[in-house]
Write a structure and sequence with these properties.
Layout (H helix, E strand, L loop, with lengths): L6 E6 L3 H11 L5 E7 L13 E2 L2 H5 L5 E4 L3 H13 L3 E4 L8 H14 L3 E2 L8 H7 L4 E10 L22 E7 H7 L4 H10 L7 E6 L6 E9 L2 E9 L1 E2 L2 E5 H15 L5
Parallel strand pairs: 1-2, 1-4, 2-3, 4-5, 5-6, 7-9
Antiparallel strand pairs: 7-10, 8-9, 10-11, 12-13
Helix pairs in contact: 1-8, 3-4, 6-7
Bound molecules: nicotinamide-adenine-dinucleotide (NAD).
């Protein structure tokens, strides 16, 4: 029987996450093969052995089984529906795109039309596997508390009135729903949206954001209660070697998902 392996993967993105994914795939050529990557004009050299292409049609002409978006929310917005409409599964790491209800609906509708799947890796969060299982019965409460050094929040609309450099102790800069958090703190939208998709949705997931001068890493604490019992999971994330804004674990979560799609034993 034809196993369909290696899985033919196309990347959208040529940055820090694409580098980790390419490195892993090149080490497992019997299971995973990258056919090409779409980048921006400034992406001059491929981060792997695969070719860089300039537009989506050239990428889809490589007949991938799966497109992995590891670029930007805008890339999911611009290219997502075309990928799914072509009947090709789409893995999305810029999950914050799903905080926009119109885009969320467009992507799901395209997936139904194209008989394709949208796959969301856990990214920088811990506990999403258990939360997804817990959500199959009653979930009463889901929350996310994100703690980052003050300057990590700089530029967000939600801190326009706060002098981040003047903070002397841990300060709560936001409490509200995941949807509002994603709007006012776009850089936190990925984790807020990923948690919401696994649990209670954007409007019932509670988010607290903390600017902490004593924090040396970004941390995300997930709490949940429901018929399953209680969940508490915290991750203190190390940055990627070549992009301090991206947690290294997010790249690994894509790699793990690719392994689960192709491994003999998928745990
Ligand atoms: N889900 C999570 O928990 C999580 C965690 C970390 C990062 N992320 C997201 O992953 C994405 C990639 O992160 P990274 O560290 O690799 O970023 P990066 O800046 O290192 O690389 C991004 C790459 O995508 C390309 N790109 C950007 N917009 C594009 C577009 N419209 N079309 C094609 N290519 C485009 C860039 O040129 C670059 O090659 C970001 O959106 C980031 O927010 C998600």
């Amino acid at each position: 029987m034809d196993s369909g392996l290696p899985l033919k993967i196309a990347l959208i993105g040529n940055g820090s996450i694409a580098t980790v994914v390419a490195h892993h795939c090149e080490g497992a050529p019997d299971r995973l093969h990258i056919v090409g990557a779409l980048g921006l004009p400034e992406d001059l050299t491929s981060v792997g052995q695969h070719p860089l292409v300039q537009d989506l049609s050239a990428l889809l002409a490589e007949m991938p089984d799966l497109v992995v978006e590891c670029a930007a929310q805008e890339a999911a917005q611009v290219h997502g529906t075309a990928v799914l409409d072509s009947g090709i599964d789409l893995m999305v790491i810029s999950v914050g795109a799903f905080a926009d209800p119109i885009l969320h609906d467009r992507l799901e509708t395209a997936a139904v039309r194209g008989k394709a799947k949208i796959i969301i890796p856990a990214g920088a969060l811990a506990g999403l596997d258990a939360l997804g299982a817990a959500a199959l019965d009653t979930l009463d409460y889901v929350s996310l508390t994100t703690r980052k050094p003050p300057l990590s929040w700089a530029g967000a609309p939600g801190v326009a009135d706060i002098d981040l450099l003047a903070l002397r102790g841990a300060t709560t800069i936001f409490e509200g729903t995941a949807r509002e958090a994603a709007r006012r703190f776009p850089k936190n939208a990925n984790v807020a949206a990923a948690l919401a998709l696994s649990g209670l949705g954007m409007d019932a997931t509670q988010v607290t954001l903390i600017a902490d001068p004593q924090a040396s890493r970004n941390s995300h604490q997930v709490e949940a209660r429901g018929a399953f019992g209680r969940l508490s999971a915290t991750i203190e994330a190390e940055p990627s070697p070549d992009n301090p804004k991206t947690s290294y674990i997010a790249s690994l979560s894509i790699v793990r998902m690719l392994d689960r799609l192709t491994a003999q034993l998928a745990n």
